[in-house]
Specification:
The chain has 151 residues and is α+β, with helices and mostly antiparallel strands. Helix content is 27%, strand content 28%. It has 5 helices and 7 strands; from the N terminus they run βαβαβββαβαβα. Strands 1, 2, 3, 4, 5, 6 and 7 form a 7-stranded mixed sheet that branches. Strand 3 and strand 4 form a beta hairpin. The radius of gyration is 15 Å and the shape is globular. The mean pLDDT is 94. The chain binds a DNA duplex (12 and 12 nucleotides) through loops.
Amino acid sequence: MWLVKTEPDTFSIQDLQRAHIAPWDGVRNYQARNFIRDQMQLNDPVLIYHSSCKQPAIVGLAKVHSPPFEDLSAKDPNSPYYDAKAAQAAQPRWYAIELQFCEIWQPISLNILKQTLTDPDFVLLRQGHRLSVMPVPQRSWQHIQKLRQSC
DNA sequence: GCCAACGTTGGC
DNA sequence: GCCAACGTTGGC
């Protein structure tokens, strides 16, 4: 069970719904990269979270639709995610996966999550967290399902 | 727009 | 290998 962040101005859950299947690329953080490359499994559920916007919130559900693959946007000089060093490296540095859209939810705001969840293992709730791809602990996942039913 | 928290870079 | 400087993230 995972959570990925996205800025809705750049790529929203509505964009994912339209695309149905979309590459989740442009991740340029090693810890997040490792989750994508080493731990994400086909069909794993993935919460979609809107960040850097008016109401930061969990806004829906997707699932992992492909094995990890090299993120070639790192080697494309025209991409906003271009990484000159990665482009020159012999070994792939950055990885992506494909996500498949599942559902749009009534937003579960960060505020509500903070008020009702105290799970220390849930990275989203930690102060100053910057991970854009993170695991969701079982008990937080269950709690989120309950919050969803009460919306 | 502000600014604290964070990850990365690069000089030493 | 340390750590200061820097750029970025992201909530408010």
